[in-house]
Amino acid sequence: xxxxxxxxxxxxxxxxxxxxxxxxxxxxxxxxxxxxxxxxxxxxxxxxxxxxxxxxxxxxxxxxxxxxxxxxxxxxxxxxxxxxxxxxxxxxxxxxxxxxxxxxxxxxxxxxxxxxxxxxxxxxxxxxxxxxxxxxxxxxxxxxxxxxxxxxxxxxxxxxxxxxxxxxxxxxxxxxxxxxxxxxxxxxxxxxxxxxxxxxxxxxxxxxxxxxxxxxxxxxxxxxxxxxxxxxxxxxxxxxxxxxxxxxxxxxxxxxxxxxxxxxxxxxxxxxxxxxxxxxxxxxxxxxxxxxxxxxxxxxxxxxxxxxxxxxxxxxxxxxxxxxxxxxxxxxxxxxxxxxxxxxxxxxxxxxxxxxxxxxxxxxxxxxxxxxxxxxxxxxxxxxxxxxxxxxxxxxxxxxxxxxxxxxxxxxxxxxxxxxxxxxxxxxxxxxxxxxxxxxxxxxxxxxxxxxxxxxxxxxxxxxxxxxxxxxxxxxxxxxxxxxxxxxxxxxxxxxxxxxxxxxxxxxxxxxxxxxxxxxxxxxxxxxxxxxxxxxxxxxxxxxxxxxxxxxxxxxxxxxxxxxxxxxxxxxxxxxxxxxxxxxxxxxxxxxxxxxxxxxxxxxxxxxxxxxxxxxxxxxxxxxxxxxxxxxxxxxxxxxxxxxxxxxxxxxxxxxxxxxxxxxxxxxxxxxxxxxxxxxxxxxxxxxxxxxxxxxxxxxxxxxxxxxxxxxxxxxxxxxxxxxxxxxxxxxxxxxxxxxxxxxxxxxxxxxxxxxxxxxxxxxxxxxxxxxxxxxxxxxxxxxxxxxx
Length: 789
What we know:
Layout: E1 11-15, H1 18-28, H2 33-46, H3 51-54, H4 60-64, H5 66-72, E2 86-90, E3 97-98, H6 102-111, H7 124-140, E4 151-155, E5 161-169, E6 173-177, H8 186-193, H9 199-205, E7 211-215, E8 217-223, H10 225-237, H11 247-259, E9 265-272, E10 277-279, E11 282-283, E12 286-287, E13 298-300, H12 311-314, E14 320-322, H13 325-329, H14 335-342, E15 348-356, E16 359-368, H15 386-401, H16 404-411, H17 417-433, E17 446-459, H18 462-486, H19 494-510, H20 519-537, H21 542-554, H22 564-591, E18 598-604, E19 606-613, H23 625-650, E20 659-665, E21 670-675, E22 680-683, H24 689-697, E23 715-720, H25 723-738, E24 742-750, E25 761-767, H26 781-788
Parallel strand pairs: 1-7, 20-23
Antiparallel strand pairs: 2-3, 2-8, 4-5, 5-8, 6-7, 9-10, 9-16, 10-13, 11-12, 14-15, 15-16, 17-19, 17-20, 17-21, 18-19, 21-22, 23-25, 24-25
């Protein structure tokens, strides 16, 4: 691992342990014998090394005295915690560390010797300014909040990049001025605060090595990889629309927490590119605050209010920061804008462009009633927030331009007939109000208190079958190439030919092992780059040329590989999915007569479907749980019919595949919401998300106490939680057994505990395929009741 210091710094860095040594000297004269003896012995060890106290410039001294330094720092790096803490000695903001804990050492070792541990997105400019702000705060009593999260991106042994958040302990550092350090006035400091980007100015006020940084810092890391992943997940789960009434309060609460400014206020304006003006966004009949527009609804960008100060924002898309508005207003060219802000009691402010693909969408305004609270330094924190604003402003601009047909076709895509009415009503509301309400916001499409039904017919062992087909094709192709090389009578270099035959034999041996994720790609590249050029360029006789031509005719033009076995598999999968999906769609038309309900299906390695039934989907029709029971019986019988259909197809398939059936029973009503970004319905809320989690995990679940999957070929597995669900489905099974659709044997077992899910049970029963040539007619829930009575 490489260590790299930034080339220029306002500090001359002296790594020193003087504060620790002073503490040891104090301990050495105490009455606690074991502590005093230990301190005395350690002081004696370091006595020949005065650099430990005066300051180390030659870093080789550190590596030469690694063990002694470890003993000196023992109180700060306790052995009991060395395998838990991620900690090392460092100089703040520099890419230099030593005296690692064992856990840190392990992380660095796994990263590899070529790894350069540098702070993410942290360049020499940032380093220099951050170092200067240390001096401003420590020596000049400023309270500049320059801290933003710093991370190390460190790969682990598997090559996965982990993110580690860095915390610094600077208790053992001191800053000392040299003769080269200029004295700064408050005007100098104010000038610096308004010119974060002017590195030359910072170097003028803080010349290189004009200060001494003596001592050492401690870098404490914690693994933030999971938090980063959770943050991404939260971004995906954010509602398409926020509660507009609370939007202003939410903005200000978030920004105040980040900037640590109690009176921080936030405003937003939208940029109208066509008319070159800023407009105030209107949400839910309420306009968001804007300090630039104040009482105006819109202002042209050529207005005198936008002085030359806004050139950076409009033309260069750069942030504008004014740390002292009163001073700013004293300049003639800034007088209009400055006085406009002072009238609103704004003493410092930041105006940041909201950009998407280089285009200006709007401006976020941060203002404070105190000078120097907002400045060009803490404006960098906006990098953490602006991504969340981009989609909001972009969505606002899009919504303002949509028409009814565009809403239905572009925003909602194909809408199931059972819920189309709600989308149409929302579109009509937009049409009726858009002429006098420029800020019309579409309501979220939510259906509450609906009962979910999930079922699937899955291809058993599809991944294993696919891998076996890949291996078979690769083996056949390699064997064909070996056969070609054995029959070559061309002028190919014999040594090269023998080498390639040996490599092909090695690949055949490799394919006897389980298939790895990249094996197919590696073999494809090898054949394309090493083998095909030989065949294309060889001067073979007519017999060999015919063999080569036949070989090239056998390969797939897109992949350059044999595709015979995989083609059979893919065709079989396609036939099964097409036939079963067609049957399900046909039966669904009949099921809508039971009670209108939402239906969606997906083709994956099989066919799965979601149904949602409840009064909110068909409010004009009274709802009763009788309809739910009818639909559950329909679903069970339909899955049986799909399995029977597969049984009929099985012998005619180009590749033999078995299927399994699965039903998830969930008796609690949930809410579903239309996800604008995914163009589909999904469960709404964290409580309801449990259903979605169960649905995604049960497919691969095992029977409790065994290694057997809960699903099995030619069988339907019904997963449930409650006794009443068990009794309900046992009645369905008994009825379908009577109708000769299901066999007599019924298996009941508990499902293994899944992550965060326990208490699931299952019923499994085989579909009867003996002597059945036709798919039976559907039976209703009333038929079942009649039979039971």
